[in-house]
């Protein structure tokens, strides 16, 4: 079977290349995969044919075996490598099949013990180099008008495009500026970049190599995943050392809120739910709520069930939440937590569950089906993040009538309308938003949620407001398309 990609052969279709380290449903460790997987569908109505380039992890072995080899490198950063054409849903997919780099146990970035691979600098330089060669037409018969790089793993791609003097436009999207891809500067010589890039104007970053920094420096446009986060990362509190560069490039920086895929996240059709429902049939959620309880060892009760579906980290504010769990139980609420992360935090949540059997249930790890059940059955979702570039769990919560209780930061601030008196009177509230991530602020927000839950009519209105909000990819896709068009119109 002949698989065409990156050709733009359909009239009035512009071929673009999306370079990333993961994409749903093929490989996923977080929200990055959801975005990369959804963009091709979101951009297609706007005249863009998106080809996605991914590393050839072991999880993609079947696709590699069934796909069509379209290019070969005898030596790509010391590895024999091929490009293999396949499909990501209805869209073109390219897999960088380099077994020495990517066919390994563990996750995409770390070994089975959780330790980052020592040669990640080489692995993702290879991905970026392959993307840049594709975008520049260095691979016979293939040329792309624009390269879209996602996070540090693809950060060198815009730098390579610039170094090669290629004509393709480039976009660098920051999904989380805390993850930057910093490596020993001694590796510079192996990257194959011109000497002038071994400087502050290229990949040098605090006497190290900065892959994300290189992308931010070289790309024609920079995007983040919410307007508020685009502003926040100009400040030292959020910029993680890159705030000066972001501020200097402010005219090229924009924020576009992520969307969610209603084909995957819809309570009306979700196969993970015992009972499906919509805003009119919210009573059906009771069956899902009843299913949450045995899954987490919760006793029946009249108070709300809060859920947490999260990495258990400082960024997510989980240390603060762990400190107030006794107080949460004292409000009459219960908690069902699904997540993993910092071992100390995992232990703290387990200890709280031991102290409050039937009131706090903890599942360490991640289970996609269970996460859907929690959104469809829990009453409210707690997201006390110290910073949150966009966040997807609050969007899922809105869609499922699982009321978000969030900190006022990043995409959380952009997507949840606080249930203050004015918003309640106007009938527009969709959740509860608190300022700061302290025990006092989080507990006050929880108490507000408990009080609102006791007012069934108001709670239903908040649920319905959230479910009526449009967080599909339609608007986000249009905004990305507008950005692409503006870049492609420039000389």
From TrEMBL:
Q: List the lineage, top down.
A: Bacteria, Pseudomonadati, Pseudomonadota, Alphaproteobacteria, Sphingomonadales
Q: Which residues bind ADP-alpha-D-glucose?
A: 28
GO terms (molecular function) for this protein are:
alpha-1,4-glucan glucosyltransferase (ADP-glucose donor) activity; alpha-1,4-glucan glucosyltransferase (UDP-glucose donor) activity
State the organism of origin: Sphingomonas metalli
Which pathway is recorded for this entry? Glycan biosynthesis; glycogen biosynthesis
Substrates-to-products reaction catalysed: [(1->4)-alpha-D-glucosyl](n) + ADP-alpha-D-glucose = [(1->4)-alpha-D-glucosyl](n+1) + ADP + H(+)
Gene3D superfamilies registered for this protein in UniProt: Glycogen Phosphorylase B
Q: Which residues form a coiled coil?
A: none
Q: What HAMAP family does this protein's entry cite? A: Glycogen_synth (MF_00484)
Q: Which keywords annotate this record? A: Glycogen biosynthesis, Glycosyltransferase, Transferase
Q: What is this protein called?
A: Glycogen synthase
The Starch synthase catalytic domain covers 16-247
Q: Which cellular components does GO assign to this protein?
A: cytosol
């Amino acid at each position: 079977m002949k698989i065409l990609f990156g050709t733009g052969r359909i009239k009035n279709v512009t071929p673009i290349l999306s370079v990333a380290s993961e994409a749903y449903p093929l490989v996923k460790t977080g929200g990055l995969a959801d975005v990369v997987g959804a963009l091709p569908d979101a951009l297609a109505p706007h005249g863009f044919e998106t080809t996605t380039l991914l590393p050839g992890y072991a999880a993609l072995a079947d696709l590699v075996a069934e796909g069509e080899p379209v290019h070969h490198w005898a030596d790509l950063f010391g590895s024999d490598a091929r490009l293999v054409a396949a499909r990501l849903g209805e869209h073109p997919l390219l897999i960088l099949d380099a077994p020495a780099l990517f066919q390994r146990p563990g996750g995409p970035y770390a070994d089975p013990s959780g330790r980052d691979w020592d040669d990640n600098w080489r692995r993702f330089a290879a991905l970026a180099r392959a993307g840049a060669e594709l975008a520049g037409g260095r691979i016979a018969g293939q040329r792309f008008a624009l390269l879209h790089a996602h996070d540090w793993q693809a950060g060198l791609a815009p730098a390579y495009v610039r170094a090669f003097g290629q004509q393709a436009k480039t976009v660098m999207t920051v999904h989380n500026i805390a993850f930057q891809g910093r490596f020993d500067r001694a590796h510079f010589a192996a990257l194959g970049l011109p000497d002038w890039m071994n400087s502050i104007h290229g990949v040098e970053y605090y006497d190290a190599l900065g892959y994300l920094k290189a992308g931010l420096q070289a790309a024609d446009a920079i995007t983040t995943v919410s307007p508020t986060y685009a502003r926040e990362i100009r400040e030292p509190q959020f910029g993680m050392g890159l705030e000066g560069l972001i501020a200097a490039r402010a005219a090229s920086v924009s924020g576009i809120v992520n969307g969610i895929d209603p084909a995957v996240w819809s309570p009306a059709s979700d196969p993970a739910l015992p009972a499906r429902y919509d805003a009119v049939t919210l009573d059906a959620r009771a069956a899902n709520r009843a299913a949450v309880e045995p899954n987490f060892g919760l006793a029946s009760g009249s108070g709300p069930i809060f859920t947490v579906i999260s990495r258990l980290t400082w960024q997510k504010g989980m240390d603060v939440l762990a400190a107030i769990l006794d107080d949460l139980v004292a409000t009459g609420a219960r908690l069902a937590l699904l997540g993993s992360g910092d071992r100390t935090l995992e232990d703290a949540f387990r200890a709280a569950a031991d102290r409050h059997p039937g009131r706090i249930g903890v599942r360490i790890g991640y289970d996609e089906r269970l996460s859907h059940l929690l959104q469809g059955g829990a009453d409210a979702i707690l997201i006390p993040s110290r910073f949150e570039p966009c966040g997807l769990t609050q969007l899922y919560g809105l869609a499922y009538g699982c009321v978000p209780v969030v900190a006022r930061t990043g995409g959380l601030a952009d997507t949840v309308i606080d249930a203050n008196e004015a918003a309640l009177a106007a009938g527009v509230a969709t959740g509860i938003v608190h300022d700061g991530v302290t025990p006092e602020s989080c507990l006050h927000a929880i108490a507000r949620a408990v009080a609102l839950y006791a007012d069934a009519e108001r709670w239903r209105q908040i649920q319905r407001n959230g479910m009526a909000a449009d967080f599909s990819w339609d608007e986000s896709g249009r905004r990305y398309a507008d950005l692409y068009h503006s870049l492609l119109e420039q000389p």
